Protein 1
Amino acid sequence: MRRPILAANWKMHKTAEEARAFADAFLPRVADADDVDIVIAPPFTALESLAWTLRGSSVALAAQNVHPEEKGAFTGEIAPGMLQALGCRYTIVGHSERRALFGEDDAFVARKAAALLARDIRPIVCVGETLEQREADRTFDVVRGQLEGSLASVPKARAEQVVVAYEPVWAIGTGRTATPETAQEVHAFIRETLVRLFGEAADSVRIQYGGSVKPDNVDALMAQADIDGALVGGASLDPEAFARIARFETP
Ligand code: 13P
C-alpha cells in the first residue's frame, strides 16, 4: 500500500509571519490525520519560521526548488545542504513554471533530483503536458520523455524515495481539473514507465496529481488506483481548504 501524500505548493505567496499564522490554523485541523503524509512547500524566506512552527507535528517541510551544486558562485541560488540543515524532507523539482518561465530542462532537473537524494531529501519531480501537446496527442510521449530525462540519475535502490507529480499544464491555476479518469489514464502510464525504469520498486513510488485540486474534487481523484496524492497550489493557501484536501474521503 502506498501512503497518500498531500503537498501544498505555495509558490510565491506568504511571508514568514503569514506562514506561521497558516500553521497555527492548519495544524489543529489535521492533528488526527495519521494515515497520510502532509507536506508544505513555502517560499525559501518562510522555511525557517515554518520549520519552527511545524516542529513536533507530523507535517513535513519542503522547498519549491534547489540548485544541484553544494556551494559556489551561484548568486541567488540555494544548495541541497542548506535545505537539509533547515529540516526539509522534500523538495519540488521541475515544476512546469520553472520549466516554462526559467528555462529548466530535464537534464538540469535530473541533477537536482540526484543532489537532493544525496542529502536524503525526497524530490517531488513534476511532469506534465501543455494544452497544445495534449491536443496534438503527444501527452504520453511528452510525459515519457520528461520521466526518462528527469529521473536519469536516480538509482533503482533510491526510486522509492522519489515522488512524481503529474501536473497537466492546462489544469494549473485554471480551475480546469483533469477528470479523475483522464488523470488516472496518465498516472497508469507513468506507473508503466516507472516499472520499465525501476522494476518492482515502481510499485512503491507515489504519484501525485496536481492542477486545480480543490476540496470538492479531491475525493474523486484520490479514489483512482494510481493517484497517490495531490500537489496543490491555490487551494493550499487556505488552512481550512488544505485541511479538507489532506483529509480526503474515498469510498
Ligand atoms: P493550482 O492548484 O493552483 O492549480 O496549482 C497546481 C500546482 O501547480 C501545484 O504545484
Protein 2
Amino acid sequence: MKLIDGKKIATEIKQEIAIEVNKIIENGGRQPHLAAILVGHDGGSETYVAFKIKDCGEVGFKSSLIRFEDHVTEEELLAKVHELNNDDGLDGFIVQLPLPKHISEQKIIEAINPKKDVDGFHPENVGRMVIGLPAFVSATPFGIVELLKRYNIETSGKNCVVLGRSNIVGRPMSILMSQKAINATVTVAHSRTKNLKEVCKNADILIVAMGFPEFIKGDMVKEGAVVIDVGTTRVKSDKTKSGWKLKGDVLFDEVAEKCSYITPVPGGVGPMTRVSLLLNTLLSAKKEIYK
Ligand code: GUN
C-alpha cells in the first residue's frame, strides 16, 4: 500500500504558485487577489476562511476578508456580491457556505460573476465543466484529479465508484472522472443505492464523499483498489490538545491493508482542496479560463 501524501503535493503546488506570482509581478502585473465573504461566526466556517486567508499569504496573493453578521439581509449580501463582481482589482471571491436560513444560497451563487467564481459553484462553470470547456472546477474534485495525476495513477478504462452526489464534491467528481482526459467508467452511488458493498467492491478507484465516519470497511474494497477519502467529520477525542480529531469516511487500518493507494485523513484530500482554490485564483488572474 502507498500513502497518497496530499500535504506534500499541496506544498509543492504552493511553491509552484509562488514562482508564478513572482513572474507576474516581475512582468509588471499585479498581485493575484482573492476575497472571502464570511457571514456570522460559525466555528467551522471561521476556521476554513482563516485557512484560505493564510494560504493566500503563503503564495504571495493579496486577500481580503469581508464580514457580515448573521442578521445581514439577502439584499445587502447581493449588493456586496455586485460590488465585488465589478471590482477590477479582484481576481476571484468566494461566499463561505452555509449561509443563514433567511438567505438563499442559490440566489447568492447565481449572482456571482462566473469569471470570478473561483469556487466553481455557479451553474455556468458547472455547465462548462460538464461539456468539457475550460471552467472553474470546485476545489475538492479539482484537487483529487491533481492528486491522481501527480501519483501517475492509471485511470483509463478503470471502474471508478463515487460515493456521494453533492453539488460540490460527488457530482462534479463523477463528471471529471468520465471525461476524455481521464477515461474512467463511473458509477455514482448514494444513500438509495442497493447492494452498496458489491458496488464498492467493483471499484478500481473508490472515491468516498458521504460524511459518515469510517463507513467503508475492509470487506467493501477490492484487493489493489485506489481509495480516496473525502470525509472530514470532527469527533471528540481525549488524545488531542484541541479535544477533537478528524475522521474520514474510510476505516483506514482495515482498508489500507487491501488497497494499492490510499489518502489519509488528515493530510490527504484536505490540503489539496485548499490549494485548488489558490490554483483557481491564479487561473483567473492569468485569464486562462475566460480568455
Ligand atoms: N463550505 C464548505 N466548503 C466550502 C467551499 O468549498 N466553498 C465555500 N464557499 N463554502 C464552503
